[in-house]
Every structure is written in C-alpha cells, then in structure tokens.
C-alpha cells in the first residue's frame, strides 16, 4: 500500500562508500551523495524503503526496482545520514559518478543495529523479498509511468 506522505522523489550521484555492501553484506549498494538526502523531508525516519530508480546519465531509460536505506547505519555507527540504494538487478559494472532518479514509495522497516553483520545481511535479504512483493503491486507499477521518469 502506498500511503501519504509517499511518494518521495529525489536524485543523487553515486559515490564511493566503505565497500562493505558487496563484501560483508552480499548486497551491492549505490551510495548516493548528500544531495539525495537534502531533497528528502528532514523528518524522514531512519528506515528501509522500496521504490523505483532510473539512471539520468547513461542513455538507459530502464526503471529498476530498488530497496534503500536512509539513515546513519547504526550497525556501523556512522555519524552522517546517507541514502544507500540496492538496485534489484544484476549489473556487470559499477556506476560511480552516474546520477540516479529515485522514487521512494513506502517504508519496509526502521533502520536498526544488529548482533553481527550476518544478521544485518539476513535482514537485507528479507527487505529485498518484501520490496519485490510491494513493487509487483498495480499501485507501485503505476509509478513506472510517472512524469518524473520521462527523460
Ligand atoms: C536494504 C538495506 C537495508 C539496510 N538496513 C540497515 C540497518 O538496518 N542498519 C544499518 O546499520 N545499516 C543498514 N543498511 C546500510 C548498510 O549498513 C550499508 O549499506 C552497508 O554498510 C554498505 O555501506 P558501504 O557501501 O558504504 O560499504 C541497509 C542497507 C540496505 C541496502
């Protein structure tokens, strides 16, 4: 169900993170620059969200399912709030420097800390399953035709 105040629309450039996503969590993430957070309401909860993403810069109009975290990554005790998106597609290459348009459609859970990285990795796999389910709904698929995604 997509409920008010969603959708949230934002844009960001993919920057280098700490490299933990692929190695430790078995989940490659696109770390977005600060502008992606600045476009979101300041009161947004530190949480995990589902939505759609589109590249702005590589002549690829495709829309990708995404699951994203917004927050300070309490498990890693970061200080700065970041948006980190996992695009639910197998890509051959990295996308550093590319811009992404993102529409967040709903929250899956609050961001939290875990006993170990394995528990976080399992929670993320669960998030991915839930995001697939949400994004397969007719209501979510309507956003594939959103004017924001017309390049
Ligand atoms: C779907 C998803 C859920 C996440 N949930 C949490 C969380 O609950 N707690 C947390 O500390 N970090 C969470 N993260 C953020 C990860 O800690 C972060 O993406 C990871 O450390 C990789 O960062 P790096 O690319 O800078 O190495 C989540 C990330 C994703 C993509």
TrEMBL record:
GO terms for biological process: FMN biosynthetic process; riboflavin biosynthetic process. Residues 4-136 form the Riboflavin kinase domain. One of its GO terms (cellular component) is mitochondrion. Pfam families: Flavokinase. InterPro entries: Riboflavin_kinase, Riboflavin_kinase_bac/euk, Riboflavin_kinase_dom_sf. Keywords: ATP-binding, Flavoprotein, FMN, Nucleotide-binding, Transferase. The keyword Transferase applies. One of its GO terms (molecular function) is ATP binding. It comes from the Eukaryota. The keyword NADP does not apply. Pathway: Cofactor biosynthesis; FMN biosynthesis; FMN from riboflavin (ATP route): step 1/1. Its EC number is 2.7.1.26. This is riboflavin kinase. It comes from Rotaria magnacalcarata.
